[in-house]
Specification:
This protein is of the alpha/beta class. Helices cover about 35% and strands about 25% of the residues. A 6-stranded antiparallel sheet has the order 2-1-4-5-6-7.
């Protein structure tokens, strides 16, 4: 079968799992078991098969199983657009993370060329009512799914901004110290803004083109004051220069794409997402993830792997069934977790089942 899916996933000394192995097909994966058995750890292991730090943004040290602390390893057989790939990613004790694709060392960003992974986890439920940092990460993750090179632009911008902030804190006033850094920030920042804006357009188009049981959102890229056109490198560079006095007083950079935000309005009700009910906020999130998946299917050629942690527990039976219908229509290998198999009853034979138990500290899996 063409598409994008894992046919085998192996975890070694990863989080709670001393060893866990799954042999899979392209259908959705319903993972059930008691709290604390390690269901979310399986999803996290899949998430690090894509660029970035995974769904928990954890360090390599945090991922290693305790008390052994021997390091960890995740391996996978991935089918991507009819091509088979072997992925290995691991970290030895006290060492940085490493990645191999088809037996050859590769930067983590290279995973974006063969894999697309999206996720929705309970920690994101407060996305609309917490700070802008989380919404920027959400938008950057969506942007990265369309443009794997977005990560490099973000890293370049952040590195130059950290160096500029050090100058500001040290009260360095000579403009020559700032010129090169602000040029690097402006070039990377303009690309970041343009990529984010393109992503929002793609998400809205994908929402509008679909008939779904989940509400659509009107999305807005909110830009911090200080630059009229953040997609123009020259305009950004001028904004950085003009902001130096205020930035020096604050000890940090006050303008730029690191200060932007994502706005959302429940389209049918014209109500800001932050003012919606908890259930409506969750439904809007699911709608955006599904829109992202539909747009990626059109762009990449296959639907992304979806990671949906405890998603069924927050939906009534009708919306749960609608979500499962959407996932199967997308032909996405969605990994979903829940405490019991009854939460996935509406999927029937359209999904494969994995039970996670914990015996003497060793996680075991049983499939059907």
């Amino acid at each position: 079968m063409t598409g994008l899916y894992l046919s085998r996933l192996t975890l070694s000394h990863y989080r709670s799992h001393k060893r866990a192995a799954l042999d899979l097909d392209a259908r959705p994966v319903a993972i059930h078991g008691p709290n604390g058995a390690g269901k979310t750890n399986i999803l996290e292991a899949v998430s690090i098969l894509s660029p970035g730090r995974g769904l928990r943004r954890a360090s390599s040290e945090d991922m290693t199983r305790r008390p052994e602390a021997l390091g960890w390893k995740v391996t996978a057989d991935l089918t991507s657009l009819s091509q088979g790939h072997e992925i290995e990613t691991w970290s030895d004790a006290g060492a940085s993370r490493q990645t191999k694709i088809d037996g050859k060392s590769a930067p983590q960003t290279a995973l974006g060329k063969i894999s697309r992974v999206l996720w929705l986890i309970p920690a994101m439920d407060r996305l609309w009512i917490e700070g802008a940092d989380g919404r920027r990460r959400f938008l950057d993750r969506a942007t990265l799914s369309f443009d794997p090179g977005h990560a490099e632009a973000v890293l370049a911008y952040d590195k130059a901004m950290r160096e500029r902030n050090r100058l500001l804190k040290d009260m360095v006033r000579d403009p020559h110290w700032y010129t090169a850094l602000e040029r690097q920030m402006a070039e990377a920042g303009a690309r970041i803004h343009a990529s984010r804006s393109h992503t929002l357009t793609r998400l809205e188009q994908a929402q509008d083109a679909a008939e779904t049981a989940f509400p659509t959102a009107t999305l807005t890229h909110l830009v911090a004051d200080g630059c009229d056109d953040p997609s123009d490198a020259d305009a950004l560079r001028a904004a950085f220069a003009a902001s130096r006095p205020a930035d020096m007083r604050a000890g940090r950079t006050l303008v730029g794409p690191h200060r932007s935000d994502l706005g959302a309005v429940f389209a049918a009700k014209s109500v800001a997402a932050k003012d919606c009910s908890t259930g409506e906020q969750k439904a809007l999130l699911i709608s955006l993830i599904l829109a992202n998946a539909r747009a990626l299917r059109d762009d990449f050629g296959a639907a992304p792997i979806l990671l949906l942690d405890e998603v069924a527990a927050h939906l009534d039976a009708g919306r749960r069934a609608a979500l499962y219908d959407e996932i199967t229509a997308l032909q996405s290998q969605a990994f979903m977790t829940g405490t019991g198999p009854e939460l996935f009853a509406e999927l029937g034979p359209r999904a494969q089942s994995v039970e996670v138990t914990d015996t003497d500290g060793i996680s075991q899996t049983v499939q059907s």
